[in-house]
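ok so i was messing around last nite and threw this chain in just to see what happens. nothing serious, just curious
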Amino acid sequence: MINKKVNNVHEALQGIEDGMTIMLGGFGLSGIPENSIAELVNKNVHDLTCISNNAGVDDFGLGLLLQKKQIKKMISSYVGENAEFERQMLSGELDVELTPQGTLAEKCRAAQAGIPAFYTPAGYGTEVAEGKESREYNGKMHILEEAFKADFSIIKAWKGDEAGNLIFKGTARNFNAPMAGAATITIAEVEELVAPGMLDPNQIHIPGIMVQRIFQGEKFEKRIEQRTVRKK
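result:
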């Protein structure tokens, strides 16, 4: 029986060292691997290159790593609600590679599928295209984008089994799905971990072959990034 379960987040993140490239799932604060991010802070690893749609907020999510200057480079699609991210980027303290969101997702998916590169029209004629090969297809110019190369991918799912099969819930699926299997080692943090055979095969979003380690998180704050309420 295949068993990829590890006992806790500490065991799950073994092998992560200074200078590594890490993918982290989530969109805003939805579906972020909260326990794993907290453990990265505790491990005090530095000079990380983090691939994530954005960097959380100042005091939560990847914002916690930014506070301690543990991230050397962010590869993201936007700055989001994180003032410290913006400050470090504008001051030159943080290397930032802003990537069109669709391209970011496809660079993850390509890595997941073992495709080294692909052509996309997104970004042609802008700074995004600088230094990249371009080619015309069907009368439209495209640029060549390379798949990501990451040491670890850390993702968050709702349910998983000990064989690594995953089910996401709602919008928390986001970047977690294409990041699974897109790095040398994929770590899945789940809210509920069950024995093999307990998940309906028809409901599984990511098969266990994409995951090397899986653990059940201890608690999830699931903070809302920004709430707007209607005036009475």
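not much to say yet. The chain has a mean pLDDT of 95.
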